[in-house]
Predict the structure of GTPase Era.
Amino acid sequence: MTTPAPEHRSGFACFVGRPNAGKSTLTNALVGQKVAITSGRPQTTRHTIRGIVHRDDAQLILVDTPGLHRPRTLLGERLNLLVRDTLSEVDVVAFCLPADQKVGPGDRFIAQQLADVMRGRRGTPVVAVVTKTDLVDRDTLARHLMSVDALGDWADIVPVSGVEGFQVDTLADVLVSYLPEGPELYPGGELTDEPESVMVAELVREAALEGVRDELPHSLAVVVDEITPREDRDPANPLVDVRVNIFVERDSQKAIVIGKGGSRLRHVGTEARRGIEALLGTKVYLDMRVKVAKDWQRDPKQLNRLGF
Ligand SMILES: Nc1nc2c(ncn2[C@@H]2O[C@H](COP(=O)(O)OP(=O)(O)OP(=O)(O)O)[C@@H](O)[C@H]2O)c(=O)[nH]1
């Protein structure tokens, strides 16, 4: 009897909480040595990668949300926008509350914003993380956990100490449990540009195959030509140009992908763009070309070029 391959999960998590809540310390504890290799994500996105938790069964990518960890912008107007746009793009949010400080107005404000995220379009789960447990005794911790529980409708509550490593693995397990099934986004836990384009290609491929899977089985490959931020844009409103080629084997298949008067391709573009914008965290101009690469599946040279 063969045992089924264990599922692999991958996705993004974001740590929020008021200044000094212990977010950086916890990030480092979760990621271990790997944080040293993280140099930040390509500038095409709003997210900066703080670290990657790389395990056999999962890859958890910890991203920063600009503004949220800075005291001055914390109460600013931009927070609402950031919360809705950016936090809803991650798979799980970890809200850090230090055990040695009572739940205060700052925490309550963030909790209110997070309630919107949980109720939002994607219903992003929020895990409450009680940090710095090593600084308090058991009774204080118990009381603190109760007030944190009363603060919101958290997916989970996990007490940890980043400094002592207490429950750090448990927190990793909990966060991973909210990630979708998926492959390693950063092979080997290394940051490169590649995964982004692999994911973009996959989104376009999915959209292009939607509804016509029977007619185009496997004869469709998507290659990303470029992902470049548009120059001269207002930094507050960036735009990324994404150019992709969709390869099919025959003219008849090209006609299917494009549809009557280009109607189907436009629909594919709208669908794919929605996913790509969520992935990159920015507005996207998507340029798609449909090309015929005859018998590419049987031609090793073509396969190479298409990245197989
Ligand atoms: N005793 C103890 N101290 C901690 C723990 N985690 C963080 N600290 C301390 O708390 C302070 C703030 O920790 P950070 O990890 O920098 O907090 P942060 O939330 O990233 O802070 P900002 O970047 O200002 O938002 C530092 O002095 C840490 O050493 C912990 O688990 N136990």
Q: What stands out?
A: Residues 263-280 form the longest helix (18 residues).
